[in-house]
Design goal:
Distance between the termini: 38 Å
Number of strands: 2
Helix content: 55-70%
Largest sheet: 2 strands, parallel
Shape: globular
Order of helices and strands: HHHEHEHHHHHHHHHHHHH
Strand content: under 5%
Radius of gyration: 20 Å
Number of domains: 1
Structural class: mainly alpha
């Protein structure tokens, strides 16, 4: 079908791409699923890791996920089923109303509701590695001794989305990713990419994970001290030497990643943690040092190694 002059990609072409990219491990009813599985290595790695751990996907809505995702996370982790909407069918119905007329630009302000399968799948994979398969998911996440593991799960989902966003190229990839992810910005993308080339993907995955974890404990910047301690706690045997000048630049890049809306971060942590029995003074709860908590948990290193390996490929 010919694209209208100067109008860009048609919805018919987008839907055809959806059908053409569908295959094993992909969800036809999730817009962009097959395309992202083929084109985005981080989307593919998390999907493969989820399937390998018997984590599935459902068009049902366990735990009223679509009404209140934060409250339903425990249900998702307990059932090992990530809910999603049939937004492909919705867009196909829209296209049938006037075949060949609509273009991607028509969806700039109104479009099908997104699915956050990448984020929730990363949560489920992280929970599996960090907690195993506890009989009571709610109780596991309510244990103060496991607080750092709970927040590592959120940090891992954030790390996954960041690297997946950095891998986006082109208009179609960007649109499909935007309807599958919370993340729309990639601060320090160039600097992080250069460090990946120089230091390797495993180390950068680990450091970005630490940065997001620190942020979940209300730390605003990635200090030189944090870097030194993170390097000492890296869950793999060897790592390249990092010159002093590179360490300063690395801290600046990682600090840039940690910028987010403080009110949203605070309120999300408050609701989730108080739901699990923590006191309302959440700043005091999160005044602990997350790297000290990691160091004190002797069982964490192999679990963190497996998680960094999943994203590193």
């Amino acid at each position: 079908m010919a694209t209208p002059k100067n109008k860009g990609l048609t919805i018919a072409e987008l839907l055809e791409t959806q059908r053409r990219c569908h295959g094993p491990g992909c969800l036809l009813e999730n817009l962009g699923d097959g395309f992202l599985y083929r084109k985005n290595p981080f989307f593919r790695r998390i999907r493969d890791a989820a399937r390998a751990r018997s984590i599935g996907f459902t068009l049902q809505d366990p735990g009223d996920y679509f009404a209140f995702p934060l409250v339903a996370l425990d249900t998702v982790l307990r059932t090992r089923k990530v809910p999603y909407r049939a937004n492909y069918s919705a867009l196909r119905a829209f296209e049938r109303s006037r075949p060949g007329f609509f273009v991607l630009a028509d969806l700039r302000q109104n479009r099908p509701l997104p699915n956050y399968l990448l984020h929730e799948s990363a949560h489920a994979v992280a929970f599996h590695e960090l907690f195993g398969r506890p009989r009571d998911v709610f109780a596991a996440q309510s244990d103060p001794a496991k607080l750092v593991r709970v927040l590592l799960g959120e940090a891992y989902a954030m790390t996954t989305e960041y690297f997946a966003a950095c891998a986006v190229t082109g208009t179609l990839h960007d649109w499909f990713f935007s309807i599958n992810s919370y993340r729309h910005r990639t601060p320090a993308k160039k600097a992080v990419g250069e460090f990946v080339q120089r230091l390797g993907m495993p180390l950068l995955v680990w450091l970005v994970l630490v940065g997001f974890l620190e942020n979940n404990f209300f730390v605003e910047r990635f200090s030189r001290s944090t870097l030194e301690r993170a390097l000492a706690l890296a869950p793999f045997a060897s790592q390249p030497a990092i010159p002093a000048a590179d360490r300063a630049q690395l801290c600046r890049a990682l600090s840039a990643l940690m910028v987010m809306n403080p009110e949203f971060r605070y309120d999300t942590a408050r609701l989730f943690l108080t739901m699990h029995g923590y006191r309302r003074d959440i700043e005091r709860v999160l005044a602990q040092d997350p790297l000290e908590l990691i160091a004190a948990d002797a069982d964490l290193a192999p679990r963190l190694f497996r998680l960094t390996k999943i994203l590193s490929g």
